[in-house]
Design brief:
Order of helices and strands: HH
Number of helices: 2
Helix content: over 70%
Number of strands: 0
Distance between the termini: 130 Å
Radius of gyration: 56 Å
Structural class: mainly alpha
């Protein structure tokens, strides 16, 4: 982006310079025309006196030199001002870029922190669910163990009642006299 800004400033500078050169040319032409008219009048008045011709030529040269120097000074000042402004804009663009990068980094950090918290929360929920499933499994196993134990106790009770496995004492009925 700073290259585009610099290119735009350079183009602007060159356009200004061309415009100023055109204005300078117009000024020079206008000045030359006026000087020529003035010279023509003075020449006509003085009937082509050599001394007047030399004075006109000297003043014309001085005016041209002064005008060229002023335009050159003005162009130099504008060039310096354009360079300073281009540097300031480049610095501003750099600062804006740094600010944007800093904001992007902060957003990335916040997203990562949010994702990390979400992952920890998900892990906590999964661990809680796992503990709940383990508790359910233990309860089912405990219920099955109690049921088996109860069934075993029932079976043992029935065996005693039915007299199987010789677990019931034998009763003997004797008819006898004594």
């Amino acid at each position: 982006m700073s290259q585009r800004v610099a290119i735009l400033w350079i183009n602007l500078f060159y356009n200004l310079r061309r415009q100023q050169e055109a204005e300078l040319k117009l000024i020079e032409e206008e000045t030359a025309r006026r000087v020529e008219e003035d010279i023509q009048r003075k020449v006509e008045k003085s009937l082509s006196s050599e001394e007047i011709k030399l004075e006109i030529q000297r003043r014309l040269e001085e005016g041209r030199k002064r005008l060229i120097d002023e335009v050159a000074d003005q162009l130099e000042k504008e060039k310096e001002a354009a360079l300073i402004e281009a540097r300031q804009k480049e610095e501003q663009a750099r600062k804006e870029k740094e600010d944007l990068e800093r904001m992007l980094e902060e957003n990335r950090r916040r997203i990562e922190e949010s994702q990390r918290k979400e992952a920890l929360e998900q892990q906590r929920r999964e661990e809680e669910r796992y503990r709940e499933l383990e508790d359910l499994q233990r309860q089912k196993e405990e219920a099955m163990r109690r049921k088996k134990q109860q069934e075993e106790e029932e079976r043992v009770k029935q065996m005693k009642l039915l007299g199987k496995n010789k677990s019931r004492p034998k009763l003997s009925f004797a008819l006898g006299s004594k």
